[in-house]
Design goal:
The protein is of the alpha+beta class and 386 residues long. It has one domain: Muramoyl-pentapeptide Carboxypeptidase, domain 2 (2-Layer Sandwich), CATH 3.30.1380.10. 33% of the residues lie in helices and 12% in strands. The longest helix has 23 residues. It starts with a helix and ends in a 16-residue tail after the last helix.
Length: 386
């Protein structure tokens, strides 16, 4: 019995020593601390507040009825810019009349207005053209438009109807309702009875001035001009400025180069000197055929009313920096985000398109093109960028 008690006493003493040794071993203490202490967590990144957007630039510029009282300047590029010191083409002249007055788009640089007045006078005096019907130029301060164009932003573009001016002054209502005449017989062919030799002369005249950079017409009109250029003189260099582009079948679009020394005006590359009557025109006809097939397959009515395509919401900050001074000049109060458009801007949007749509292929024409095994593609954007 005495031996049993002595054994238990020794065992208890041994366990107590072992436990005490474990408590004071530094490597054990360090190991345990490493496993139980949490690392500090990184602070969450602060969310950046989204920059205020404001109304799209097209609403800002489309709602201002007056020009910027600044020195005349075309600022930026034809499709991304604005106009300072814009001047209006008078609504009536001896050789021209302005159409679609509700749009208030008869504004341009002084150079554009001078060009149009001279062209109208020269075309009547030398080419037998009775006068110009002038469509869209630019808004009073240029910039993006609420509808109708991507270009025409710097006061150097103008649309001129291929319909001759009548021999009387049109009423304001007639200028809203009258429709320009299409020169097309079908999507690929000009009606030679409509596109007369006088048309060829006036387009050549328009391209002949050195300040003209380009003139845009429908590819079928370009083809007809190439075929008939020799009828209006040996010099055919003017054809190089005539550029094919979609939907320009009832008007031609004049684009002036940046005036010399005008700071901040961005020119396009000059035309190459090629007349554009060869491979380039063949390539355009390939695209025209695909578009004509696609439109016929979709059974599209080119004159049907439809919602305008949604444009990208370019903001004022996306335009050249000087455009902010243009839009605010003369203490102009900018629209705030969510403000309603003023009545004059709504009238511009509601105005009738200047001309008819591109003709649709007949069933027989469609089958003829389909025999070539070509698939249709959608019609590209109508606005010239080249």
């Amino acid at each position: 019995m005495r031996r049993l008690v002595l054994g238990l006493t020794v065992l208890l003493l041994s366990c107590g020593v072992a436990a005490a040794q474990m408590k004071i071993r530094p490597e054990v203490t360090k190991s345990v601390a490493t496993k139980t202490v949490d690392k500090p967590q990184a602070k969450p990144a602060k969310k950046k507040k989204p920059a205020p957007k404001g109304p799209p630039a097209r609403e800002l510029f489309g709602s201002v009825p007056t020009p910027a009282p600044l020195e005349a300047r075309a600022i930026g590029s034809y499709s991304k810019g604005c106009l300072a010191g814009g001047v209006p083409l008078p609504l009536n002249g001896p050789d021209w009349q302005v159409m679609r007055l509700s749009r208030n788009r008869n504004w341009g640089s002084p150079q554009l207005v001078q060009y149009l007045e001279r062209l109208a006078s020269d075309a009547r005096a030398f080419d037998g053209w009775p006068g110009l019907l002038v469509g869209d130029m630019s808004q009073p301060r240029g910039g993006p438009m609420l509808n109708g164009h991507t270009s025409h932003q710097v006061g150097l573009d103008a649309d001129i109807w291929l319909t001759p001016m009548p021999d009387r002054i049109l009423t304001a209502q007639e200028r809203e309702d009258m429709t320009a005449v299409s020169m097309l017989k079908d999507p690929l062919t000009v009606d030679e009875e409509k596109l007369t030799l006088e048309h060829v002369k006036v387009i050549k005249r328009a391209a002949s001035y050195p300040q003209v950079a380009r003139i845009f017409v429908h590819p079928a009109i370009k083809k007809s001009l190439c075929q008939r250029a020799e009828l209006v003189g040996k010099d055919q260099a003017w054809l190089g400025k005539i550029r094919p582009w979609w939907n320009h079948h009832y008007h031609f679009h004049v684009r002036l180069a940046c005036p010399p020394g005008m700071a901040g005006c961005a020119d396009q590359k000059p035309v190459t000197g090629d007349l554009g009557c060869g491979k380039e025109l063949d390539d355009w006809y390939g695209m025209l055929k695909k578009s004509a097939i696609w439109m016929a397959q979709q059974d599209i009515d080119p004159d049907a009313e439809s919602a305008p395509p949604k444009k990208k919401g370019i903001l004022l900050r996306d335009l050249p920096a000087d455009c902010k001074a243009v839009i605010t000049a003369g203490d102009n109060q900018l629209l705030a985000e969510g403000d309603e458009l003023p009545p004059e801007a709504l009238r511009a949007v509601a105005s009738k398109d200047a001309g008819p749509g591109v003709p649709i292929l007949t069933e027989a024409q469609l089958q003829t093109l389909l025999n070539g095994g070509k698939l249709g593609i959608p019609l590209p954007d109508r606005n010239p960028i080249r």
